[in-house]
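Researcher: Next sequence.
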Amino acid sequence: MLASDPSDHSERSDLVRVLGLGPAIAIVIGDTIGTGVFLVASDMARDVGSATLVLIAWILGLLIVLLGAFCYAELGAAFPKAGGPYVYLGRGLGPLWGFLFGWMSSFLERPVAMATLAAGFVRFLGFLFPIVATPLFSSHIGRYLFTFTTAQPIAALIVVIVTAVNGFSVRMGGAIQVLLTSLKMGTILVIVVGGVVFGTKHAGSTAPAITSFSLGTIGALLTALVPTMWAYNGFNDLGDLGEEIVQPQKNIPRAIIFGLLTVGGLYLMANVVYFHVLPFAQVAASQHVASDVVQSLSGSRGAAWLTVAMAVSALGALHVVVLTGARIPYAMARDGLFFRFAERLHPSLRTPTGALVFLGSIAALLALSGTFEELYSLFVFAVWIFFGLVAIALIRLRQKEPNLVRPYRAWGYPWTPLIFLAAAMALTVNLWMVRPVRSSLGLGVIVLGIPFFYRWRKRPRAADIHSRRN
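Model: Next structure:
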């Protein structure tokens, strides 16, 4: 159960603190670097029509998420609890908002992220074995053309396997993440070094020039920020493991900020190389832009090996998304505000097996339902609503609990959360306008949680917990 003050770090937990600074940094980097940096440059190029604007979108995205990182670092250090934002929002804005985050995360954010990463893994697999993308059948659902390919059941199987692996010990999960993170960082560095050393021999035509910054250009940049934010997502997840990190007051802020800056540097270098090596039109048309870059530098054999490494990168990100995500429904169930089976822990490994089965089942179904681009647009819309709410919670906590112990304070307050909030609002409104059906579906899932909150809140256990909190 949660104590009346979630900042009381001495509270007993059934989870164990075994993740030091190194594994925590690896989790941030490994969670953030998944499929996005290897794939979404082509989507962004089509959105904005200029290599320069693509790079501006990456830089702008980094600045926005860095502001968010400062907010999450302060809250994570003050409330190192399982569930992360579920605790932050509950404390700052009220139990309903914390619950709605947990509901959204359990039914939408984490399952969609898992399905998207699995779809990205299979997309890499399709570069090596094109038969993977073979359509099996197509059907019209209203105006939407649904195409079912071999890739979708493979993605569902990948979700099931990685979820099962997360049933083992947290210490082993941290070690796996250090290894996989080292591999994925090495993959990006190989692409960057290869492009710098050999890219001049293969450099293509220049991209269209930017003539002016009109409203259309700004709208295109906001649209390009959708895949950018998918690629940067992950810095916010470390707080979910708050009860399993050693010295969380120090290690959570350090890991979040250092990990995100490392990721941002790698992303920018990789995208500069993409446009240096390939013509702009080829980048925009590519389905496997990083693999195409390597193929132009070292031929089909080199591209095949790098694609394997990128596929492993997607698996690493999927692993940590499952690792962190399972703690959210677990924390809610422990508070009596979710399905009771999600509270189950493995008797000896102390892993949340009930929550893992729940997330894995939903993610496997989602993996059968949509494509890579469709999944991450749904994900970004839902997540950024709550990014904005976390910024509001930080401001509210500064006002109503000025004496709360804050081992780390967000740099640039109050402008840091205010700018992050404005960016979150702009991104969600623009995404609603561009993809209204998917966005409405995401909002509908969130609103659906309200009656469940009031139903579960009537349980004696939950009522007792909330009375103690207040």
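Model: The two ends are 14 Å apart (CA to CA). The chain has one domain: 21-469.
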